[in-house]
Write a structure and sequence with these properties.
Blueprint lengths: L1 E6 L6 H16 L4 E6 L18 H12 L2 E7 L7 H9 L9 E8 L6 H13 L3 E2 L4 E4 L12 H21 L3
Parallel strand pairs: 1-2, 1-3, 3-4, 4-5, 4-6
Helix pairs in contact: 1-5
């Protein structure tokens, strides 16, 4: 079971901190799960414009292949200007809608205002529903105040919600094996 831990931004550290915590919880649930981190900041992305797969650069081809070969996903995103980052949307535009079908997805996000959690409901979930992913109902939204000035996750409630989300994600993985 290959689980992709996708950091959908090219700036900041909070989403990576969340993914690091989730990786620990996943490892405790099942040692057979293989997690892989994808940090979009480490890739030279190109704008998706409809050209054939082989005409994109190696980094884009690698990202598309990683997305399409994964069995499950945890997507971490910041919320910028009331929206997901363009880099994350660009990656979704590159992936075949069939590639993510019936695959489990959990979402974690971070924003500067408490109201930005609505971006998950109004933008990210509809994209994942278009792909017909098995989206866990309990995403985790964090705010800047949940982190120390050094970027460490310091809120115990967030830790508990991440653990719970990971447990539900595990159940969705089990369910996806039956489809």
């Amino acid at each position: 079971m290959k689980i992709l831990l996708l950091n959908g931004t090219i700036v900041g550290t909070k989403t990576q901190t969340l993914l690091n915590e989730i990786d620990k919880y996943i490892e405790k649930l099942n040692k057979n799960y293989k997690t892989k981190f994808i940090n979009l900041e480490n890739y030279q992305m190109e704008f998706v414009d409809g050209r054939p797969f082989e005409q994109y650069n190696e980094d884009m081809q690698h990202l598309i292949e990683e997305m399409e070969q994964a069995d499950a996903y945890v997507i971490a995103t910041p919320i910028f200007q009331g929206s997901i980052p363009g880099t994350l949307k660009n990656l979704f535009d590159a992936v075949s809608p069939l590639a993510m079908r019936h695959k489990p997805v959990s979402i974690v996000a971070n924003g500067g205002t408490l109201q930005h959690h609505l971006v998950i409901e109004n933008q990210l979930k509809p994209i994942l529903n278009y792909f017909r992913c098995l989206v866990t109902p309990n995403y985790v939204y964090t705010h800047t105040n949940h982190f120390s000035t050094q970027g460490e996750l310091i809120d115990e409630d967030v830790h508990n919600r991440l653990k719970e989300m990971t447990q539900v994600f595990h159940q969705y993985i089990q369910m996806s094996k039956e489809i």
